[in-house]
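User: Quick sanity check before I run a bigger batch. Here is a single chain. Can you write out its predicted 3D structure?
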Amino acid sequence: MAVLSRGKSLVENIMADSTMRSLFGAIGSKATSPQAQQVKLEHSPSGTRKWIKELSPLANVVVGRCARILLLEIDDLKRSFEEEAPLPAKTPGRYARNFLEYCSFRALSVATQTSDHLSDKEFRRLSFDMMLAWEAPGAANKPTVKKDKEQGIMAGDKDEEDSALFYSDLMPMMVDVESTVGPDAFCRLAPAMPVVADMITVHCQFDALTATTGGRLPFPVYDKYIGELDKTIKSMKNLATPSLVSNLRLSKGEMIIDVDGTVTTQPVLQHINMSTWPGRLTLTDRALYFEAAGVVSYDAPKKYDLSVDLHHTVKPDLTGPWGARLFDKAITYKSENLSDPVVIEFPELTGHSRRDYWLAIVREVIMAHQFIRSSSLEGVGRSEARARAVLGCGRLRATKEAYHMLPRNPEALLTFSLTEELPGGDMVLEALAERLKRAAEGENEISRESRGSRIFSSAAVTELSALGTDAYKDAGIPVGEVLIGDYTQLEKAVQQARSSSRKVELAQSTIEGVRVEGIGTNVAIMKELSIPAVNFVNWLQDVASWREPFKAAMFCLLFSYIFYRDWVRYLPPLLLLVIVLYILWLRYSSKGKRDHEIVVPIPPGQSTLEQLMALQQAISQLEGVIQAANIFLLKVRALLLSAQPEATDQVLAILGGLALVLAALPLRWIALAVFLDIFTRQMHVRRESSERFNRRMKEWWNSIPVVPVRVADEHDHQS
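Assistant: Done. Predicted structure follows.
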């Protein structure tokens, strides 16, 4: 908006100046020269510039450039959109943005098929301008120009044509000045270029690129990132030298992702038991290879196949001389066919970014093949999954090179690694698998045509093939589906997972605020949280002690009658209903009170010597256990007090449902069902559903925030 406002002022000043008006007249005369007309006719069938009144100036420029890429007239594009798009996409409030998306997706699907398109400065500028226009697509953002009544400059059709010429020539220059792109525009358009971003990791990619620019993406950063991507993809292609391929004996279609250990200043060491070898490490989209360095050349490679189901495990590890665990710069690889774990070390003077980078990309390849196996992908679907892993590793490497440092969470830029951490990530993978299976079924129906509200754009395999890689050329060319005016199932699954992730992050942030140091303070918090339970136990003990004979006698008679009438089975549902009523009473009694803070008195202090002698190492472990218990109790308290009403409503529904089940079925049948459920959880038939249930429960529990805790002295607590 600021850029457009500056553009408006610039236009007004220009049009008010007669000298500049004559200059624009000269530009107009040049545009109508035979040479200019020939150039325009080569790029546009119509040879004229069309101004669409619903679009902003920059959007008009972008649409015109898209039309030239597609070799279509703008009227033809507009007619196709109005025929193919659904009615909701053509409403006045959404028409401009949806039409811009329609043109952009179609143009990108064609432009990305051009070899070496990442090196094309015009492609980078166009893709960035698409994002800028996406943020302000409507005519309301079009700068207005004052009319000069004396000169009669802005009048009729001639005025509109001159305006279109002015904006299409100068607007790309104006948006270079402090123009930035927001997350919504980048995350909507960037996945149409699979090399640039993946639909699953695009939000994390944007966060990584804008970590130092305040959450907005300027063109210089975007241009540098695309440049590093271009270098990375070309580097992957150039790594497949005849000597390396013949020495590794790569299988057909196997693509090299990265190689390390070729520079003497950055060696790679392999440790097996007490033996150590320097050598060259190579990762492909199927396996990990290590070649020990010989006198003249490398020895025969040791292959660790990551594509087969061998229960691969890769984790960070410590290494050092003579087995001493001193340096945190290595990874440990284990699998079923290895008798001893393999430790691969990446020595460097400071930090462990090399190790973290290789740890992330090796895990990504392993998870990609796990996804392929679990989804039973074949043919094009298998190739597309592998290509997504390759491009994810490439984007991580390009981001690292662009900023000369590894992102804080490198796994977030990798498709399959992110879904492992993302709440609901399995649902994202299910949507992705369904999408790849549909692509595999229609692999012989490669079409650039629109059907309904669907636009078919390039996918990862397509772009890798277009960029000159030979690995997937025999796999066919799948297509990715984009919906204009709506979101695909994969996009919806990603949005849902991100929404759940934000809830988990907020809940986890509340946990950090209640972690307090000191065993005494943690014990004091636990005592405070346990007061209701302690009071109830004390009341039962008081009744059982017969200090009040009448109360004790009535309690004894009541439960004796319950047992006599065989009403024991009604006690659990009655207890659950009491809990439900108690929670509802707490909710409405504290309605309007958002502060559920617990005030805990500071416990009496102890000397350092006394604490060291009494607690030592066991106390530090006990402290962790108590902290975990406090978090559990604080989350339970949050549920009771409806700190998160959505989760509390779920608990109420579950408790009420359990109450009805326990009331309707005999207790012995319920006990049998519980036994069978526990005993059969690890059966092959139920293993997947049990793991999914456990994951859902864990994600739900992690999404519950805790009640804040404030540690205060005893005087403040009493007051």
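The radius of gyration is 33 Å.

User: Great, the batch can go ahead then.
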